[in-house]
Amino acid sequence: MKLIRSIPQLRSWISKIQRQGRTIGFVPTMGALHEGHISLIHRARQHAGSHSVVVVSVFVNPTQFNQKSDLKKYPRTLTEDQKMCQKAGVDLIFAPSSKAMYPSDFSTWVNEQSLSLPLCGKSRPGHFRGVCTVALKLFNLVQPDFAIFGQKDAQQAQVIRRLIRDLNLPIQMIIAPTLRERDGLAMSSRNKRLNPQERKNSTRIYQALKQTRAAFRKGNRSSANLKRLARNQLLKIPKLRLDYLELVDASTFQSVQRASHGNLLATAAFLGKTRLIDNIFL
Ligand code: AMP
Question: What is the pLDDT of residue 48?
Fold first, then answer.
């Protein structure tokens, strides 16, 4: 497995791979890898087949953080990440510096202007502008045939799907399911920040989503009722501050009045100082 940190080196590696006629699978990450990321890498390996390479980017993208403290606290564990990638059969880690990605006079941005507006877009102004900009930059650099994203960040996945379509990028987009801890907590690099009590309580977020889905399965179709049910469960969790809880159409991210199969119940909440997100399909 190779580790490349510079853009010129990446370009020459990618063009060599392309000359060999090999397919490129891509898993963009911000590092601090966990089994959730690894499941995407395995998916990439399977999808790509033998005459192919899997590229993982590790880049804590400063432009998608709307709070400096969050960016500063974000875990950085490149040595560990390398070991995990090696074990998972990654061919290349691309880990550029912020300076290389964003020269001081950087001034070109990508704005998706529909799916980015609600939920995380509303509570984290500028977040999806940073996500879209870095995604397009990484796609231009890595030139993947396909890219894998996690359902855990459902809105991000749909925003990037839209970006790929709208800007005619020749990239197949694959969305892989959320990997969870045994107790149901969605795996996330931010989970490391939870103290033991918060970690214990965090499992109740997914429980609240599942209870709401159970009510839907029993025939409850009122979005207001279902959201009330979920919100009540969430607000019982000690030290939880709800950011949003919404029931949306899974491809437009517009709120729905009547719940139907395939809708997405999505939430973001702070447990102490840590912001967690999760979602479930009805
Ligand atoms: P991040 O490093 O948080 O930017 O995540 C990189 C990619 O991994 C994104 O496509 C995420 O949606 C995905 N991902 C993060 N956590 C999980 C998880 N628990 N299960 C599956 N995919 C995940």
Answer: 82
Q: Which residues pair with 266 in a beta bridge?
A: 246, 279
pLDDT at 49 over 90: no
- For the purposes of burial, counting CB atoms within 10 Å of the CB of 125, is it exposed (0-12), middle (13-18) or buried (19 or more)? exposed
- Give, using CA atoms, the residue closest to atom 13 of ligand 1: 150
d(CA 67, CA 270): 14
Which residues' Cβ are closer than 6 Å to ligand 1?
A: 29-30, 36-37, 39-40, 149-150, 152-153, 176, 178-179, 186-189
Structure confidence at residue 24 as a pLDDT band (50, 70, 90): very high
Beta bridge partners of 54: 25
Ligand 1 atom showing the smallest separation from residue 37 Cα:
8
Structure tokens at 98: 């912020």
Residue-wise pLDDT tens digits, 238-252: 999 999 999 999 999
What does the block give as tokens for 239? 């030290």
User: Against a cut of 0.85, is the pTM above it?
Assistant: yes
